[in-house]
């Protein structure tokens, strides 16, 4: 199944000049959803790790089923003010704005290994902030896994030195 054919392009969303890659048709299609999660698990099966880390909101969509299928725990990264316990936090910039991400301070113990799962890497700003949160907690990022890579936005360069895997490149 060609997953790239099911992703819908929306010009000028959420602001002028951004070509938004809409994954909702892929989520709507049971076969495409299963294949996406299965392919992510297949790639990640070569790594040893303790947790899947995924950012709100779209990182949750793929991160939790991957964690479930691989019998791992899931660590949510949330936008500022949503996590109830003590947090670590990082400001970051996006293709369309800036924000603050947080992780629970006790989510990762020093030496634990994690993979980051998200729907898409654009500038890499979100993922860089997550890597910094994980490393501040003493964790090690062994892989970063995405459905979509927007190559021209340079996310890979931002994450130089880390192992980035993507299923579809634009
Ligand atoms: O590589 P970057 O330039 O950081 O961009 C990628 C991030 O942007 C999107 O999330 P967004 O912040 O739009 O939030 P959402 O998942 O709640 O829609 C996407 O799901 C990634 O997390
Ligand atoms: N162009 C884009 N399409 C979909 N999600 C995004 N997140 C950041 N940039 C994006």
From TrEMBL:
Any one Gene Ontology MF annotation carried by this entry is: AMP binding
Annotated compartments: Cytoplasm
Enzyme Commission code(s) on record: 2.4.2.7
Q: Which UniProt keywords apply?
A: Cytoplasm, Glycosyltransferase, Purine salvage, Transferase
Task: Provide the top EC class.
Answer: transferase
Task: Indicate the segments forming the Phosphoribosyltransferase domain, all copies.
Answer: 26-148
Q: Which residue spans adopt a coiled-coil conformation according to this UniProt entry?
A: none
- The protein's predominant localisation is cytoplasm
Q: Which reaction does it catalyse?
A: AMP + diphosphate = 5-phospho-alpha-D-ribose 1-diphosphate + adenine
Q: Name one GO cellular component term.
A: cytoplasm
A single GO BP annotation from the record? purine ribonucleoside salvage
Q: Gene3D superfamilies annotated for this entry?
A: 3.40.50.2020
Task: Name the job this protein performs.
Answer: Catalyzes a salvage reaction resulting in the formation of AMP, that is energically less costly than de novo synthesis.
- Subunit comment for this entry? Homodimer.
Question: Known PANTHER family for this protein?
Answer: ADENINE PHOSPHORIBOSYLTRANSFERASE
Designated name of the protein: Adenine phosphoribosyltransferase
Query: Which organism does this sequence originate in?
Result: Bianquea renquensis
Q: What is the lineage of its organism?
A: Bacteria, Bacillati, Bacillota, Clostridia, Eubacteriales
